[in-house]
Design brief:
The complex is a heterodimer of chains A (about 170) and B (about 80). By secondary structure, chain A is an alpha/beta fold. Chain A is about 40% helix and about 15% strand. Chain A folds into two domains: about 100 residues, Hypothetical Protein Ychn, Chain: A; about 50 residues, no CATH class. Chain A has a five-stranded parallel sheet. In chain A, helix 1 runs parallel beside helix 5. The mean pLDDT of chain A is about 95. A four-stranded mixed sheet of chain B has the order 1-2-4-3, covered by helices on one side. In chain B, helix 1 links the parallel strand 1 and strand 2. The mean pLDDT of chain B is about 95. The chains are: A alpha/beta (about 170), B alpha+beta (about 80). Chains A and B meet through helix 1 of A and helix 1 and helix 2 of B.
Chain lengths: ~170, ~80
């Protein structure tokens, strides 16, 4: 309902891998579409999600429960969850790149938006994007590496926004 | 099977969460008050999602029905 005061969602995005990039951007874009005020604080590895050149990858060796699926071939073949030992997932050169492209392909096949697409929608809908200044300094990022419209700030900047929120989540 | 009148139509077939919601929101924003949008999706989650979305945004979900693998929604903009 368009009451006097809209609901507010405050998110912290702390992870920068492809799989963990989805929850904040899905929740933020959907909340904005539900007429909520939304802000995301991008901190630590999450800060990389604000880069113009998004290069988020998925690391299967750190996700033991992750089903490895093939995005091509007959349905029966696509449904197989391939058991990949960590010794391969963690040591074979290029494994992460391969797993990333398989995940992207599977997502696209299933009609899931790309991270870039969801992020663009967030920007278009006026989601407040706050980049963590401390993380920038620590990892050596400069503001021109980020997309336009990013506010920079620290814990206090986020907490001021979150203090008046109805939903607050750490991702 | 649906004789509901509508002003605009939106095809969200093949799209997965949250795209049908995001596209619907974008389309509804371009419409006038009282106009009806027909939205077709194939995502089974869209039934609950559209119900929640209309409840939250104050738009009216006139009806939803299933036609094979298609879910058909009629939404009236308030």
């Amino acid at each position: 309902m368009s009451e006097t005061k809209p609901k507010r969602l405050a998110l912290i995005a702390s992870q920068g891998t492809l799989d963990w990039a989805y929850p904040p951007f899905i929740l933020a874009s959907t909340a904005a579409a539900m007429d909520m005020e939304v802000g995301i604080f991008f901190t630590f590895y999450g800060l990389t999600l604000l880069q113009k050149d998004l290069s988020a990858k998925v690391a299967p060796q750190t996700n033991p429960a992750m089903p490895m699926k093939m995005p091509f071939g007959p349905q029966g073949f696509q449904n197989i969850s391939w058991p990949i030992p960590n010794v391969i997932a963690g040591n074979v050169p290029g494994f992460e790149t391969m797993a990333t492209s398989l995940m992207k392909k599977t997502f696209a096949n299933k009609g899931v938006a790309s991270i870039e697409e969801l992020r663009d929608i967030c920007v278009e809908m006026g989601v407040k994007l706050i980049g963590c200044q401390m993380t920038m300094d620590v990892f050596g990022f400069t503001k021109d590496q980020f997309i336009d419209g990013v506010d920079l700030g620290g814990a206090a900047t986020f907490l001021e926004f979150a203090a008046d929120s109805d939903i607050s989540l750490f991702v | 099977m649906n004789d509901q009148a509508y002003d605009q139509e939106l095809d969200c077939k093949g799209m997965n969460c949250p795209l049908p919601i995001l596209k619907t929101k974008k389309q509804i924003d371009t419409m006038g008050s009282g106009e009806v949008l027909k939205m077709i999706a194939t995502d089974p989650g869209s039934i609950n999602d559209m119900t929640s979305w209309t409840k939250r945004t104050g738009n009216e979900l006139l009806s939803h029905s299933q036609d094979g693998g298609d879910y058909v929604f009629f939404i009236k903009k308030t």
